[in-house]
Amino acid sequence: MAATDYIAPPIFDPRKVPIIGTGANMPAVPSMAMSPQALRARFVNQPVWSPEVLRESSFSQRELAHASVLLPLVMRDELHVLLTQRTTHLATHGGQIAFPGGKADADDADATATALRETFEEVGIEASHIEVIGAMPTYLTGTQFVITPVVALLNPSFELRLNANEVAHAFEVPLAFLMNPANHHEHVFEWQGARRKWFSMPYPDDQAPNGKEHFIWGATAGMLRNFYRFLLA
After folding, report:
1. What fold, for 34-232?
2. Which of 112, 114, 106 is nearest to 150 (CA)?
3. Using one digit for the tens of pLDDT, what is the confidence trace for 157-203?
4. Verdict on whether the full-model pTM lies above 0.85
């Protein structure tokens, strides 16, 4: 990448960016809509709906790159979302919370193949534990990645084998927490004369690396917000 291809955003602590609102007055997704059976049916017979977040303000002038992530729903007593925390040295989105996934390879058959390959490479979950049930609309990041979120159900018998070069930590969050907009915070900050807005979904957890919470924000929170809109439609 040429030096002019990427304009680094200002270094800031996203936890300290003011919250301008929450979804406390919005309905949560009903529990009956979050069962494996209901989710399979939702993707077979999709409602008319519109994603809320399709793109971020760009920080880059490089060419678009295609990528896929797995939105993995672990089938425990209630569904949980498996998330990772990226290692801090990665060139893009270092240290952030993310879905397993990454850039498409030329020999990947499709977006699903990319998501399954990257999930195995990052956290060691084999395809035999994964039931892909659908995909969400693409999401364009500020770093010029066109991400396809691939939604899947995970058999809880999987074993994690983290790639220490890419993944610092992995954890689960109840889907019900993430599908309750009272837990969605909206933030705004000004940069390069533009007003930039994004969501966060801080999940309290004393087992988090900081002993307080997992701060889910940016692209991951945006895709989860779209999943909320899809399930509520």
Report:
1. Nucleoside Triphosphate Pyrophosphohydrolase (3.90.79)
2. 112
3. 999 999 989 898 999 999 999 999 999 999 987 766 666 788 999 99
4. yes
pLDDT digits (tens, 9 = 90+) for 54-103: 887 666 667 889 999 999 999 999 999 999 998 864 544 446 899 999 99
Are 186 and 49 in contact by the 8 Å Cβ rule? The answer is: no
Q: Where are the beta strands (DSSP E) in 56-108?
A: 65-75, 79-86, 97-98, 101-103
Look-up of token digits 């990448």 = 1
* 75 token code pair: 């089938």
Residues found in the chain: 233
Distance spanning both ends of the chain, measured CA to CA:
41
What letter represents residue 182's amino acid?
Answer: A
Residue type at 76 in one-letter notation = R
CA distance 48 to 59: 32
